[in-house]
């Protein structure tokens, strides 16, 4: 009896020691992003976190902070550079200021169609762009499809003339600023989270985004005309601090990378449904979707490409490479 009690205590002791050592070994990575919990990208990142937890037997956990709780996209990327955050979901527009290779994604009408854009994301070029920020202290793990963007306002935008002199919110991306200038508008960089109030109060006349972000951020309550001009296709990007990544074992790093790619595939499925559902929702809120003649927009932004050819050989090479990919 004494002996079996002894065995029992030893087993309980060992179990305590084991769970204590597991708790000690568990690493929690903080992930920040600026969309709400209903956005498809949040759901894709939940799958990412679940897969990482499962495949590492709970050694790596990812805690997701949505709604820009820990800072807007720029602030989050800076916090990641300072070591206060491990993972950030940003997008190629915001990344332009951190790594110029992302500029290509922000050029209007560079991609022939959706298939061309998606090809670039998985192509060697796409991978080069993801690793281009290495010297800034982070790398891209994967892209998340974020569809195409259109202008929206309180009045219909049918041609670039309708944008003339409007105060148009853009992301803090030099290419977005040049694009709106080329179209005759007045570009105003602003963080995503500040846009609802700015539109509502009339500080901003127009903005541009994909349809799910337009409705889920409630901009559809205040801007009732959405133009299907599809001027850009700008992917979201999941970034990880190189310091945080290097703290993981090789096996854990491989799990994180694979889970990110899997969540990107899941996002592609979620995206199409989300675009359809959110468009239907906007229509119920009396938003009018306007089909436009894209040629007038394409003509207006042509000088941007002439300018790049003259002043930015790196970007110009990238543009040529992207165009030749079938
Ligand atoms: C998209 C994108 C976000 C970005 C936002 C914006 O919704 O997914 O990452 O912040 O556009 O316009 O700021």
Automatic annotation (TrEMBL):
Pfam families: DctP. It comes from the Bacteria. Residues 1-25 form the signal peptide. Keywords: Signal. InterPro entries: DctP_fam (IPR018389), TRAP_DctP (IPR004682), TRAP_DctP_sf (IPR038404). CDD domains: PBP2_TRAP_SBP_like_3 (cd13671). NCBIfam families: dctP, TRAP_S1. This is TRAP transporter substrate-binding protein. It comes from Xenorhabdus littoralis.
């Amino acid at each position: 009896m004494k002996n079996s009690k002894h065995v029992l205590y030893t087993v309980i002791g060992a179990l305590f020691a084991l769970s204590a050592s597991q708790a000690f070994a568990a690493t929690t990575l903080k992930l920040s992003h600026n969309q709400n919990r209903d956005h498809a990208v949040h759901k894709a990142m939940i799958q990412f976190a679940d897969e990482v937890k499962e495949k590492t037997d709970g050694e790596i956990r990812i805690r997701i902070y949505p709604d820009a709780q820990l800072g807007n996209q720029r602030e989050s990327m800076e916090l990641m550079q300072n070591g206060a955050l491990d993972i950030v979901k940003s997008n190629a527009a915001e990344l332009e200021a951190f790594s110029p290779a992302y500029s290509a994604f922000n050029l209007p009408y560079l991609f022939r169609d959706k298939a061309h854009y998606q090809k670039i994301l998985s192509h060697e070029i796409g991978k080069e762009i993801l690793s281009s920020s290495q010297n800034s202290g982070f790398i891209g793990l994967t892209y998340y499809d974020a569809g195409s963007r259109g202008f929206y306002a309180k009045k219909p935008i049918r041609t670039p003339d309708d944008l003339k002199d409007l105060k148009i919110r853009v992301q803090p991306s030099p290419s977005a600023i040049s694009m709106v200038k080329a179209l005759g508008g007045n570009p105003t960089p602003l963080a995503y989270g500040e846009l609802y109030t700015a539109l509502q109060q009339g500080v901003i006349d127009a903005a541009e985004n994909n349809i799910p972000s337009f409705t889920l951020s409630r901009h559809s309550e205040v801007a009732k005309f959405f133009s299907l001009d599809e001027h850009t296709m700008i992917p979201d990007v999941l970034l990880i601090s190189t310091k945080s990544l290097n703290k993981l074992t090789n096996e854990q790093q491989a799990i994180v990378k694979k889970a990110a790619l899997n969540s990107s595939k899941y996002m592609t499925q979620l995206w199409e449904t989300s675009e359809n559902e959110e468009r239907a929702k906007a229509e119920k809120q009396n938003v009018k979707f306007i089909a436009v003649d894209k040629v007038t927009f394409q003509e207006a932004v042509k000088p941007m490409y002439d300018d790049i050819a003259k002043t930015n050989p790196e970007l110009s090479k990238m543009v040529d490479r992207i165009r030749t990919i079938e």
